[in-house]
Amino acid sequence: MNTVGGYFRGFMTPLKNDRFLRALLREPVDVTPVWMMRQAGRYLPEYRETRARAGDFMALCQNAELACEVTLQPLERFPLDAAILFSDILTIPDAMGLGLYFEAGEGPKFKKPVRTAADVEALTVPDPEKDLGYVMDAVRTICRELNGRVPLIGFSGSPWTLATYMIEGGSSKDFRRIKAMMFDQPELLKHVLSVLADSVTSYLNAQIEAGAQAVQIFDTWGGVLSPENYRDFSLHYMDRIVKGLKRENEGRKVPVILFTKNGGQWLESMADTGADALGLDWTTDISEARQRVGNRVALQGNMDPSTLYASPERIRQEVATILEKFGTGNGHVFNLGHGIHQFVEPEKAGAFVNAVHELSASYHASV
Q: Mean pLDDT for the chain?
């Protein structure tokens, strides 16, 4: 329970625990808030049981009650400070008619990859309530069931990241098709990214209107770009999205988090977008990141997810190190540097969450 103020200022529906939102806005908190990317997922036996009942991954995403169930499962185990919508980053391309499907052991694939000028011209912005209504139904259902327990995070993939899957036809190690388009047909790729930027803006705004109290943009593959190409083909479109998002809803501020994996070298430029917080992976030292961005943005992260394979004692040491590196003051949301791995024992995740709350209190003693 948050002892700072009990309710986040301006909420029409009060939150029992608002420290996550306060930290994103660099306001005082009693302890450092914590959540985990992919916190609802395969490392939890109850998730695997629910997915088996659903039949497959997309059936789980498209069933509002089951998506709500798995969103809340980690909160039943751990005292997390936020829930994150259970969905997939590829819902937008699927709604564009590209035919998303999942091959066992191979990840997501598309039946209709985007390869030609005709493919690009056929792309249209999905209607979030009509074409992605199952996501909005899930958001509304989760908010109802949370009943102010903790905030709900909505999310989307970044335009660049979505485009990599759409153009490659699925996952890729070398990104040869999208990079060939980027170098040989840059204007064609920019058209794809422009449609995706409009789509992500509309999609996230609909999630906010449905009740999401913060949103995160996952730029999973921005880090495969050179600095110039990152600016022109990834950051430019995320900047456009941030500027088009609703930043207040029902009398409350709606914080925006940008996360580029392997993007630590571009933090200053990311902060220039006007986002409220930047996610860090574990390849960036959080003390150096804080020195570079100052008080312009909050920072989220950034423990190596593999630390959760270690003993609870070692996990606690790593949490202590990261807290010490960030230091005192406001604006830190503790998280892993990427998603939790599927083979992590749930008890290790619990040790991680508890360590953050226990060890961080002294950094907020003046609250």
A: 95
In this predicted structure, what is the pLDDT of residue 7? Answer: 40
Q: How far apart are CA 197 and CA 186, in angstroms?
A: 16
Taking the mean position of all CA atoms in its chain, how far away is CA 83?
A: 11
- The answer to whether the CB of 145 falls within 8 A of the CB of 85 is no
Catalytic pick among 18, 30, 81, 88: 88
**Catalytic annotation, pick one of 7, 48, 51, 231:** 51
**38 belongs to the catalytic site:** yes
- The model's pLDDT over 111-163, given as tens digits with 9 standing for 90+, comes to 999 999 999 999 999 999 999 999 999 999 999 999 999 999 999 999 999 99
Active-site residue (options: 26, 38, 290, 316): 38
* Catalytic residue check, 19: no
- Name the token pair of 358: 């226990």
Identified catalytic residue from 18, 22, 137, 165 = 165
- Look up the CATH number of domain 19-364: 3.20.20.210
Q: Which helix (H) or strand (E) holds 355?
A: helix 346-360
Task: Report whether 17 contacts 30 (CB < 8 A).
Answer: no
Classify strands 256-260 and 252-253 as parallel, antiparallel or unpaired. Answer: unpaired
Amino acid 2: pLDDT:
45
Is 308 buried (19+), middle (13-18) or exposed (0-12) by CB count in 10 A? Answer: buried
231 is catalytic: no
The continuous run of DSSP H or E covering 48 comes out as helix 45-54
Concerning whether 176 is annotated as a catalytic residue, the answer is no
Catalytic residue among 42, 140, 177, 314: 42
Annotated catalytic residue 51: yes
Q: Distance (Å, rounded) from C-alpha 320 to C-alpha 309? A: 17
Q: What is the pLDDT of residues 31-89, one digit of tens each?
A: 999 999 999 999 999 999 999 999 999 999 999 999 999 999 999 999 999 999 999 99
For residues 196 and 164, what is the distance between their CA atoms, to the nearest angstrom? Answer: 12
Give CA torsion, residues 37, 39, 41, 46, to 10 deg: 180
